[in-house]
Amino acid sequence: MDYAIKKSNDEWRSELGPEKFKVLREAGTERPGTGELLDEERSGTYTCGACNAELFKSGTKFDSGCGWPSFYESVRPDAVELLEDRSLGSVRTEVRCANCGSHLGHVFPDGFGTPTGDRYCMNSISLNFTPAE
User: Fold this and answer.
1) Catalytic residues, which ones?
2) Cα gap 40→69, rounded to integer Å
3) How far apart are CA 94 and CA 105, in angstroms?
4) pLDDT over threshold 80, residue 1
5) What local confidence, expressed as pLDDT, does residue 5 receive?
């Protein structure tokens, strides 16, 4: 995909620091239950941790019990890019920021009880949060 924001790995590494770079640019995963946004309950907007593109609204966040912030839909279908991921010997759907291509997490069809049936399982470190005013 052709992303609006294009930077070299050195530029991303310098801007993000090692922990964020590992997750956002190398598709790493933070340990479950450790992310600072897991228990965030205020109203607001979740944006990409690399480029600040708007990704999720707080009203779509739910407690899935998986250890990572979970949402049932993105702010717009074109806000995220969905890609097949076969990296761990199974087929999953990776979620990337459609603006810069940064790895956010994965989406699963097991968001039981949600309007969409989806669970966007996101790394806290991949997101920024701005409380509503």
Assistant:
1) 121
2) 9
3) 6
4) no
5) 96
